[in-house]
């Protein structure tokens, strides 16, 4: 499945569309249509002298009618509010959902919205985490460079290697945003040089604010053959 659209993470707070149209939650489609047309005559910007109020009220009325007059969107709204509606709108085009009024059952629509919302909750849980993987390989090709033709002959004859890996480092880290300014980084690394392998687990805390003149704190620890603990403080002062 494709990634969720960014709009999912910035949906406006829910508005009671039933209250906006002054209808009950079990109102029929015809009752919703009549209520919208009555209110639109009062609040449409082209039909009233109170343009400021109309500019604020009518878009909400229009949105409420669009959602409640569509059976799939209304089902999504009743289950999950505006976020469920946005999920369904982003999942299918308007024309496809117009056809869905006649093709898909209520159970299908409800299950589809349930799947989309589960994806959204999973994305919310994953949002504070970010992983980084890094691999460094150092190749020893001195013999190959000194005698390239002879080295190629040896390589083709598979007699011995003229190029070897002298050093390799693999690092993995995961960053977790625990607050607006604080990030915890946990990970580790594996180090191999000429067949000698080492490794360590690492953990760090970074405190950084948006103010460039504020104190920045980087606390790092390492647990391995030689445990380490380091603190890095950074503070920039403006010259006046």
TrEMBL record:
Family matches, as InterPro entries: DnaJ_domain, J_dom_sf, Mito_inner_membrane_organizer
UniProt xrefs under Pfam families: DnaJ
Annotated J domain residues: 16-81
Alphabetized SMART domains for the sequence: DnaJ
PROSITE patterns, A to Z: DNAJ_2
Alphabetical GO biological process terms: cristae formation
An example Gene Ontology CC term for this record: mitochondrion
Protein name stated in the entry: J domain-containing protein
Organism in which the protein naturally occurs: Aphanomyces astaci (Crayfish plague agent)
Lineage per the UniProt record: Eukaryota, Sar, Stramenopiles, Oomycota, Saprolegniomycetes
């Amino acid at each position: 499945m494709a990634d969720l659209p960014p709009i999912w993470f910035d949906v406006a707070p829910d508005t009671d569309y039933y209250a906006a149209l002054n209808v009950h939650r079990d109102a029929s489609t015809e009752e919703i249509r009549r209520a919208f047309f009555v209110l639109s005559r009062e609040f449409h910007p082209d039909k009233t002298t109170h343009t400021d109020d109309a500019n604020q009220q009518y878009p909400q009325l229009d949105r409420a009618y669009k959602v409640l007059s569509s059976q799939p969107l209304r089902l999504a709204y009743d289950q999950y509010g505006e976020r469920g509606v946005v999920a369904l709108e982003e999942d299918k085009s308007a024309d496809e959902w117009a056809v869905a009024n006649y093709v898909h059952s209520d159970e299908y629509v409800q299950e589809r919205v349930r799947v989309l919302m589960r994806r959204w909750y999973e994305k919310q849980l994953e949002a504070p985490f970010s992983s980084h993987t890094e691999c460094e390989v150092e190749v020893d090709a001195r013999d190959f460079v000194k005698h390239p033709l002879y080295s190629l002959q040896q390589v083709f004859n598979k007699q011995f290697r003229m190029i070897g890996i002298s050093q390799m480092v693999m690092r993995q880290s995961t960053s977790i945003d625990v607050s607006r300014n604080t990030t915890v980084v946990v990970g580790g690394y594996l180090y191999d040089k000429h067949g000698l392998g080492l490794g360590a687990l690492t953990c760090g805390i970074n405190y950084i604010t948006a103010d460039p003149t504020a104190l920045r704190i980087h606390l790092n620890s390492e647990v391995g053959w030689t445990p380490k603990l380091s603190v890095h403080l950074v503070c920039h002062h403006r010259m006046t």
